[in-house]
Design goal:
The structure holds 2 protein chains of 2 kinds. By secondary structure, chain A is mainly alpha-helical. Chain A contains 21 helices and no strands. The longest helix of chain A is centred in the first third of the chain and has 43 residues. Chain B is elongated and about 75 Å long. Classes of the chains: A mainly alpha, B mainly alpha.
Chain lengths: ~500, ~70
């Protein structure tokens, strides 16, 4: 989210003055003009990499494994992070990943820099190398086994490293040309789309769908309503990102919804900070609390899977309750992960129609009776403002899902390409994006995103609703209605 | 001290603190019995607690879904 491409510009619409509204329209239009090209590039780059990954996996098979990677885990010697257990050392896989990103993205970024006259190509190259070095440090920090065990993901360290530089010595001018956080995020999201395998939705049958796809949207909508109407948080995009982060699947959902509703980078940073802090607490407290309260492993696993934000933390917390709890927890979370495709699409359409629409009513964003919204141009206007990269995200999901659905060979191909190539590239892109966000953020600008503590209150209230509803659903579905079927399914 | 120098020293101090934390503090925290047992369990079960998406944890094999009547 770079300056001017966020919801901040149209936030002025809520103030309800005509001039502010006109400014917002102009700002929104220019954002769309610039964003369109970036969105299309994100789709093209993402699809190229997905196609390349599929072809390489089909040709090379398992021998491809390890050639694209990211730094791993270490305990006492940081250099362990570059070794790994496979035949190809992780430093080699990491360099290959960065080389692929640079080779694919470099021409696009240089071209857009020239268009915006914000830097020259030599500056871009050195800037990209510096950002890549910071991303590497973020991965090394996240790879320390203690930091990793408590769910402090690389995005947090990437953000903090960027913030540290920009708020002390300042981001050097020679780096600015490569600070393309929004492009990296959208590109990473298109790659993430390939990991949204819709067939996984059925992994637990009806019980999984009931807990993950019925309760989660209810919590999301309720939290959004509470934040906007009861807590009266002025920025709807902040409320949406916090709600999605808390109710769906943590960082990945926050990134997807923030891009879909054009949230400010400070809002995304705040939501992720809240989520990772509460995740570290919940992943320790929930299994202990459930054991103390005598909650059985199946219900506890479903409860953990439906409530703890971060996917990795769900696995660790489930494991603390036993193998069966871990299997239930991770499967429920996986089904919830699949939901981000639907959520990102729904949020982008809703935002394009309501908040990004210049003819929406100033006070509440709803179309007024006399507004041009009612005219036939509505769909064209919504389409103009719709974040197009979401189409790439959905297309990637449909392609990978169809392939996985086509049979065992197709499934092996799709999963081999994800596991061997695209997920590592996606992690690198998100890491680069968060370094860029940090480099582009004044730490003082994070305070308004707290909304005087209301963001924290929203998270706590929303998570309480989430815990209550998911707990009820877990007891009803996993503890009673489908208990025998689940028992028979487990090893 | 000028503002610029102050900021440089601030960056250096924080960088040293981070180096100390990752190079000395965290490895020692990792030796505490309670923390060690958690880490060992995660490593034994192949869990990546820092995963941001399910594909970072593992890709579960396709298999039969739970079958049976509801109560």
């Amino acid at each position: 989210m770079e300056p001017g491409t966020s919801a901040s510009a149209d936030g002025s619409r809520n103030e309800g003055t005509d001039s502010a509204g006109d400014d917002a329209v102009r700002a929104a239009s220019s954002q769309t003009d610039r964003g369109l090209s970036e969105d299309v590039w994100a789709i093209l780059l993402g699809m190229t990499l997905i196609t390349g990954a599929l072809v390489a996996t089909a040709v090379l098979g398992d021998s491809l494994k390890g050639w694209v990677a990211q730094p791993g885990v270490w305990s006492t010697a940081p250099l362990q992070t570059f070794v790994g257990k496979g035949s190809v050392p992780l430093w080699q896989g990491s360099l290959t990943a960065l080389a692929i990103i640079a080779a694919a993205g470099l021409p696009v970024m240089i071209a857009s820099n020239r268009r915006e006259k914000s830097g020259s190509s030599p500056h871009f190259l050195s800037g990209f190398l510096a950002i890549a070095a910071l991303a590497l440090v973020a991965f090394v920090m996240a790879g320390q086994e203690v930091a990793k065990e408590y769910g402090f993901e690389y995005v947090l360290w990437a953000l903090l490293l960027g913030l540290l530089i920009s708020n002390t010595v300042g981001t050097p001018d020679w780096m600015r040309g490569a600070v393309r956080g929004e492009l990296f995020i959208k590109w990473g999201l298109v790659l993430l789309g390939a990991e949204v395998l819709l067939g996984k939705l059925l992994a637990l049958g009806l019980p999984g769908i009931l807990v993950s796809w019925v309760v989660t949207p209810i919590v999301l909508i309720t939290t959004f309503w509470l934040g906007c109407r009861v807590l009266k948080i002025p920025s709807p995009s902040l409320v949406m990102v916090v709600a999605a982060d808390m109710s769906v699947c943590g960082v990945s959902a926050a990134i997807a919804t923030a891009a879909a509703c054009r949230a400010k980078k400070e809002e995304l940073s705040m939501a992720i900070g809240l989520s990772l802090t509460f995740t570290a607490v919940m992943m320790v407290v929930m299994p202990l609390g459930f054991r103390y309260a005598g909650v059985d492993d199946i219900v506890g696993g479903a409860w953990i899977g439906g409530t703890i934000d971060s996917t990795g933390a769900v696995a660790a917390a489930g494991a603390a309750m036993g193998d069966r709890a871990m299997k239930i927890a991770t499967t429920v979370k996986m089904i919830q992960n699949i939901l981000i495709g639907v959520i990102a699409f729904a949020v982008s359409v809703y935002w394009a129609a309501k908040y990004d629409n210049p003819s929406a009513d100033a006070a509440d964003g709803r179309p007024s009776a006399s507004s041009p919204v009612a005219k036939p141009g509505l769909m064209a206007e919504v389409w103009k403002r719709f974040p197009k990269f979401v189409l790439g995200f959905l297309a990637a999901s449909l392609i990978a899902s169809s392939l996985a659905w086509s049979g065992p060979a197709g499934e092996a191909l799709a999963e081999g390409a994800i596991d061997g190539v695209t997920k590592h590239l996606r992690n690198w892109l998100f890491c680069l994006a968060f370094v860029c966000i940090g480099l582009d953020t004044d730490v003082k600008s994070l305070l308004p995103a707290l909304s005087g503590g209301k963001s924290l209150v929203l998270y706590v209230v929303g998570q309480t609703i989430n815990l209550t509803l998911t707990g009820l659903a877990a007891y009803l579905v996993f503890g009673w209605l489908f208990r025998d079927a689940i028992e028979a399914w487990l090893p | 001290m000028s503002e610029r120098n102050f900021r440089r020293w601030l960056l250096l101090t924080i960088a040293l603190a981070m180096l100390m934390t990752w190079g000395w503090v965290l490895p020692r925290v990792g030796r505490l019995t309670e923390v060690r047992s958690r880490i060992d369990q995660s490593q034994r079960m192949g869990i990546n607690p820092g995963a941001i998406y399910y594909t970072d944890v593992f890709l579960p094999p396709s298999g039969p879904t739970p079958q049976g009547e509801t109560k």
